[in-house]
Structures are given as C-alpha cells and as structure tokens.
Amino acid sequence: MSSQAPASPVASASQRAVVIIAAACVLALLYFGREVLVPIILAIFLSLLVAPWTRLFRRVGLGHTSSVLVAVGVLAVVVAGMATMVGTQVVHVARSLPQYEVTIRTKVKSLREETLGRLDFLQGELGKVIDGNGQGAAPATASSAQLPFVAPPYLTNAPGEAHPASASTKATSAPLTLVTRVLSTAWVPLETAGIVLVVLIFVLLEHESLRDRFIRLAGGTDLRATTAAINDAGERLSRFFVSTFSVNFSVGVAIWLGLTVIGVPSAPLWGVLTAALRFVPYVGVWLVAALVSVFAAAVAPGWSLLAMTIVLYLFVEVVVSQLIEPFLYGHTTGLSPLAVVVAAIFWSWLWGPVGLLMSTPLTLCLVVAGRHVKALDLLNVLLGDAPALTLPQRVYQRALSGDANEIISEARDFLKRKSFAAYCDAVLLPALQLARADLSAGAINTVQQTAVRRAIVTVVETLDSHESKWSRWRRRPSVLDDANIGRSLRQHREDAFGRWQGPLTVAPGSVVLCVGLGSMADDLSTELLTRILRDLHIDARHLFIDDFTAFDAEPHPDATKDAVSMVYVVSTHPEAERDAYDNVVSVVRNRLPKACIVGVLFPEPLVTAEATLPANAEVNEVVSSLEQAAQQAIVRIPEGGAATA
C-alpha cells in the first residue's frame, strides 16, 4: 500500500496537464477555424428562430421541404431588404455630411471657446499672478512673432496643378477601380451569407436527424441525461432568442418613430442599428446612442435636438430594461452579469463582431453543458447565476472569517420572508453541522474555532428581538472563552435576568422549559429554541438536567406551584442519544407529572434515509424541527395566557 500512495499526485498532475493541453487545443481550434465555425454557428442559431415558422407552415399544409424553403426565403428577403435599406441610408448620410459642415464648425468653435478658451484665459490670469507685477510675461520679439498661417493645398478648395498627361488615364480607370473596390469589400459578407444560408437550409431539413446524431455522440447509453441537457439548452436558447429578438425589434421601432418625431434625419438607419447592437449586452445600445447624439448635434444649429435624442434613448432603455424585460422573461438566461461581460470580451476577441453578437447564446450553451456534464461543472460555477455556495456554506465560511456583519445582513434578508425558527432550521444549524464535522476531523485550528464561536454568538444575539439590548453589555469578559456556544448564550441571559432566567412568581402554567442532553449541539439547539419561544412572548427557560437537583436544594418560597406547562427535550443525535433521551424524559415526568413533554428530535445530518425515531410512552408529542416546536407552543400557550389542555 505504501508503494502505491505516491501514484495519486502523479495521476492528478497528469490529468491537469491533459486538461490544460485540451483547453489550449480547443481555443486554437476556435481561433484558427473561425472562418468555418462562424457560419455554421450562425446557421444553427438562426435555425432556432426559423424553426417555429417552419412548423407553422407545416401545420398550414406545406410539406417539410417546402416549409423550409419558404421560411428561409422569407428570412433572406427580409435580411436583404434591411441590408439594402441600411446601405441606402448610409450612402444618404455620407452625402449629406458636407451640408452640415457649417453647423459642425460652429459647434466645434463654441465648444472650444467654452473649454480650451476658458482654460487659456485662466492660464493667462494665473501667469499674471505668478509674475507679481501684473504685467505677465515679456512681449514676444519680432523674430518670434507668429507668422500668418498658410493652409496646405489639401485643406483648401484651390485647384491643384494640372496633369494633362494622366487625366485621361484616371478618367478611364475610375469606374473600373470603383467596381473592383465595391466587389472586394462586399465579397466577404456575401460569401459568409451564402454559406450561412446553405447550412441553414440543410440544418432545418435534417433537424430531427441531427438531434438524434448529437444524442448518440454525446450521450452514449445515457439517453436520459443527454435528452435533458438538449431540452434545457433548447428551451433556454429559444426563450432567449424569441424574447430578445422581440424586445430589440420593438426598441428599434420605438427609436425609429421617436427620432422621426423629433426631426433627426435617417431615423430608419438609427432604428435598425439600435435593434442590432442591442444584442451586444450592456454597451451596445449606448454605443448607438452616442453615435446618434453626435449626429444630432451636427445636423441642428442649436443643442435642443441633441438633448431630445439623449432623453429619448434614456427613456426607452429605462422603460424596456426595468419594466418590459422583467415582465416578459425576468432575466432568466441563467448567466451572471459578470459572465455576460467577460463572455462578450472573450468572444469578440476570438471571432470579432460576430462573436460579440453571439457571445450570450454561446456562453449560455456552455453553462447548460456545465449543469448536465459533471466534467464541465466548472463552467456552471464560473458563468452561471446560481450561488456558488449554499446558505449554510456561506454562513460557515463567513464565520470562519469572523465576518458576523455579513451573516447578519443575509439573515435579515431571509427573515423578511420567513421566521427566525425557519432560519435556524434551514441555515444556522446546518452551518454548525459543517463546523462540527470539521472540528471532529481536526480541520480547523483554535483561532478558527474562536472566530466561529464569536461570530455565532454575535449573530444569535443580534437577531434576538426579545431580550433587552442593554443586557448584552453586562456580559462577563470570560463568557466568550467558553467552548460551548449554547452555555455561553444562556449565561448572557442569566447575567441579565438572574439565575433562573426570570422571576419565580408567575401565572400557573405559563412557563416552558427547554432541556438539552448535554452535548454542544444539544445545548445550542436548546438555546435557539428558548430564544425563539421568548420572541413569541412565551416565558421559556433553558435548563440542564442538573438544574432540577440544584433547584430542589435551594429554598424558593415565592415559586408558583404548577408554573411549568410544557417541557421540550432536545436531541440532535436521536439514535446515538437514545439512552440519555429516555433518562431525561423519565426525570422530567417524575418531577413534573402534569407537564406536556415534547421531544425535539432532529434528523441525523447527511443521512438521506428516514431514520426510526426513538419512541417513548411518556412523551406527548414528537417534532423534528424548531419551527414545528414553536408551532406546538403557539397552539398550547396563547399569547399572555396559561397553557390549554
């Protein structure tokens, strides 16, 4: 066995090396194969938009092939029409720019006077103050005087020198050069569009077959997991595409109409650009807004058109992002905001503008894969919006760091929805189970134990709304040095209310006793139950089994007879503490024969199977959580009254 022990680190190191090499190969494949992969990915994503229309045409009565061809044809016509309109608008804007030259020069001059002009004035005044005599710097000499500015020929409209020999050659070659330049510029987009169109047709024609092939390759024999992953990815992507496309199309139309109303030229172009670039998360719409604002400032002599353009974009984006999008799909893509931004940077670096547009759906596919493939779980943790740690794990981690304030903040958010008893059952006690497991394994040192103990004490006392706050300042300095948190918290109450945690002259049947079995977990659970009941205005007292003997050894002439109506016996390990539980129940029944005994038997931690709870004939009720125990007390003891039968 000793000879085989060192093999594990070597194997893990080799596995890490394989993972790193595989990741590097995947990145290289994505980068160098982008000319092939980008059209295919675009076609697959477009198939998610076109597939509903294909199914609609099939329900109308068209065949499968006819439905695909009609849907793709309509998509091609719409895209070609939009591209033609955008191109026409771009040409119109380019031709109209010289008309706005005077306005642009006036605006630039005005901005210069308001910024650099004021700065030059302040600089001159500051120079006078520094000079001391109010004269400023000495006048410039004649040799250094500013010479008149002579504009170069390329900045003026003056005709250059004639070149009659080459004029005819340029005139004849200009059309051919223009056609060549246009074709060379448009060839790459047309080539990509043609490939996407062809791949889209075949993807739609073999949609079912491609899905079956992918399930066979990815799932092997585990068809259930692969089918679940594909359905999850398809549902999320479909919801993302349909909802995002609808919202962005509506935003583009709203911007189009708004710009037309306020008088910005080429409003259709800006509406289309807004709808397209809004697919770029967070920054796309504001890039278009900045461009349109600059254009609006250039076409109008005043500043009102610029102000109205900015207000229009702000109003539309705020209404859409804060009201319409949460109402339609509630931001349920499953991605964290940081992941969306990082993914946009990564995919734009990898595939350029097309990668920027496809960054969110591509990252969504990676998150879905991480949720269903165990080897890719890292992607779900890094990119998904689900919390990386559960609530108990977060409480334990913050307690190890001694950060009680963050625990309290999260607890108050929890308490806005549920009760303190539910918080203890769902968060605090499971977190302490994690601490107890690490303590048993020797995984935490003394400093960390002290940090956890102080944090839990601070959290419990801060969340306690019944006991007076001034009593917390009366605690003894050595109380927090006790390793038992439950006993420490009980000692705080004794310091504030006396040895028996309250007066002994009370109404009959108004006192509830909470008794633990002696372990640290039992004492803390018992103390939490006591505080929960006191928050409900029930006179609950936390006692140990030895306190019954101590009470009998002291004279209590003012003690009310039959003051105790209920006794809770708390056990966090019912199976292991069966004998101790039976002994405590027997002692309580002998001393308080009329009291209602309720056993609080918590389920064993990290045990999924239902365990058989120890039965005891002397116990009236058995509950398995603090919330159930609180409900028992509410039923039996009305607020401000005695126990009911």
UniProtKB/TrEMBL annotation:
It comes from the Bacteria. It is found in: Cell membrane. The keyword S-adenosyl-L-methionine does not apply. It is a multi-pass membrane protein. Keywords: Cell membrane, Membrane, Transmembrane, Transmembrane helix, Transport. The chain crosses the membrane at residues 12-31, 37-56, 68-91, 186-205, 240-259, 279-298. One of its GO terms (cellular component) is plasma membrane. Belongs to the autoinducer-2 exporter (AI-2E) (TC 2.A.86) family. This is AI-2E family transporter. It comes from Dyella telluris.
